[in-house]
Amino acid sequence: MKKLILTGLLAIFAMSTGVSQTEEQVSAEISAWLAEYFSNESIMDMHVDFNDQNDAYEVKMSDGSEIEFDVEGHPTSIKSRKGFWPEALPEEIANYLNTNHKDVKVVKYKKEDNGYEVKLANGTELEFDINGQLRDN
């Protein structure tokens, strides 16, 4: 019986450690994301705040953009005066923006517990549910 319990605990421990990512892995994912969507800019400052699980990594870019990432390396907040293209956002939101607001850059993005907020360069503000579907305002 002890062997069965010990085996079960070891299996649970192995699964939990296999799922978690190291800080280096997350930093590499963030660097790759930044290289893809902010390729013309360089990182001016990046710091880690594990006390805030929602916005654990905070990055400032050379153009003044500020981007926050969660502990898994997914962007949770993006503010950019110059704007950025919708492809940097979740696929459903990017598809909606490319269809309905073609050629308009995004200047602000925020992931909330219950959805997403997006502000476009033309002043349009949109809210999406957690599945990336536009909410009726």
- The best one-word shape is globular
Order of helix and strand elements from N to C terminus: HHEEEEHEEE
Largest sheet: 7 strands, antiparallel
| Secondary structure: helix percent | 25-40%
Strand count: 7
- The largest beta-sheet arranges its strands as 1-2-3-4-5-6-7
Structural class designation: alpha+beta
Radius of gyration: 18 Å
* Low-pLDDT sequence parts: 1-19
Distance between the termini: 58 Å
Mean pLDDT: 84
So how many helices?
3
Strand residue percentage: 25-35%
Describe this structure in a few short sentences.
This protein has 137 residues and is α+β, with helices and mostly antiparallel strands. The protein contains 3 helices and 7 strands. It is 31% helix and 31% strand.
